TrEMBL record:
This is Uncharacterized protein. InterPro entries: Pre-mRNA_splic_Prp3_dom, Prp3, Prp3_C. The lineage of its organism: Eukaryota, Metazoa, Ecdysozoa, Arthropoda, Hexapoda. Residues 290-317 form a coiled coil. Pfam families: PRP3 (PF08572), Prp3_C (PF06544). It comes from the Eukaryota.
Amino acid sequence: LLSNKSRSTNIEPSLVTAALNCLTSGYDRRKTTNKLASLLDDKKAARLTERIFDLADELKFTQRSSRKRHHDSEPRQDEKESKKSKSKNAEPEGTTIPAPGNPSPGQLTTLQIKEMMANAQKMIEERKRALNALRADDPPSRYMIRGDDNSGMRSSLYGFPSSQVTSLLQRGDTDKARKIAQLQAQIQNKLSTGVLSLPPLRPVIQDKPTPLILDDEGRTVDITGKEVQLTHVVPTLKANIRAKKREEFRQQLQEKVVEDLSETHFFDPRIGMKSAVRNKRALRFHEPGKFQQLADRMRMKAQLEKLQNEISQIARKTGITSATKLALIAPKAEHREEEIPDVEWWDSVILTEENYAMENGKINLKEPAITNLVEHPIQMRPPTEPLKPVYMPVFLTKKERKKLRRQNRREAWKEEQEKIRLGLEPPPEPKLRISNLMRVLGTEAVQDPTKIEAHVREQMAKRQKAHEEANAARRLTAEQRREKKVRKLKEDTTLGVSVSVYRVKELSNASKKYKVETNAKQLFMTGCVVLFKDCNVVVVEGGVKQQKKYRRLMLNRIKWEEDVVKDSDASETPNKCVLVWEGTVKQRNFGEMKFKVCPTEKLAREHFKKHCVEQYWDLAYSGAVLEATDDM
């Protein structure tokens, strides 16, 4: 028992301390229960927590109610104190007031009281008039009444004078005196709180028209008698009002100061400034006979066009037009003025001197150099002749190919059997299959069929694997396949390069331009495309097979007729592509396929001349000119 008592006495202070710590730390019920569970049982800790929080809530409620009562009691105490002070002040005065039955010798009569009240009312009215006059002259904020400074004024305005109060008290009307004192206290309280401190609102002065004063003669005059000229309102139209406003607006625009824009950094004097107001446009009358002259010009122009068409038709029939246009586009011959040599190179072999000097009417010749033999020049190998002889391959029929394969396989089998017979190679294992299992093995298959079947299937898998490995070894890699494809597309052009020249009337379609360029690059062909009005020239260089594929692209695969071309006379014609020339040259003259835009015919010819093939342009352009003359 003693031990239990001592243990309980030790637990109590720690429990109280833990509970206070939980409340000061602001723990909720769950945290407080967990904190106290370390000192008590769970159930006891929960009950103790509930009790602690209930007591804390009651304490908070009582504190709030006591505060409210304290606030409510304060004004009551103030009222009691004020009443006590009034009664204390009234008691000494009451000692001097005689009884109502015994009036004092200085008691006022009713007439005197009435006169005193009338005088007080007069004073109040005069004071109000003075205040109104002051408010009319100065702002109202100047006359805000402040609590302590104007206490005398307030008492004189809102209460009774102190002399009347003392006289009433001396006369013995104690009830009236108390009421007056209470009224004065209430008025003083309201003035101190600011309820009555605000001045009355200033009356709104309505603006009235000045009175009309007429003299004996009926003229309008002012108060001093001077004549006044009245402004007469004249009714006007809305159009006149708008015109007047417009004129005022223009004057305002003219009066505005215009900034000197030339000094700014971004000013451009070439750009004209638009005026803010649109200028009036006057009527412009045509001079008499103007349209007759226009009609005569149009008739004359139509007659000239008709005559020109007739002349062109006659010239086309006779062929003059084509010859004229071809002569215009023909390149000018370059006349080279070279120095004439003294001796030609073929004569220098037989001449004794370096000139054609004659002696005795004969030229000096080397007689031994002239014989009766004919000198033949050395025959040179043509550039297109192959270095090795090319033989025509022999094409076999299907039956012949089978027979040849059979013979080759027979020879290989015989060679293998000979090696086995000589012991150079081990004999191959029998080729077992499920179908020939019993025929090849016989009794062995009957003794252990499961083992034999597994052996056969293993052999079959081995043969299949060897076959797949052989195929994989023969299969080309991605790089090898790419090289093989490129090798098939590329051709040997050392012996000669095939060239094709195409003329397209219109080549502005992006899709068709892409096809022309991309196919040439894919076929590893070189060349160029010159873009000129009504004569677009496509030149491609490559092998024979490449030219065959590209020709099929240009003439068949691309649908040139889908595009419509407008001629100079505004007539629409379908687009087309023409093969101008194809042949063989010694070497390539162009690099990778590129496009060249040439605005003039001279630039186009210079581009081809730079590559030493100006004849391509002459041939293509002359064909375009002849085609244009035929269509006219």
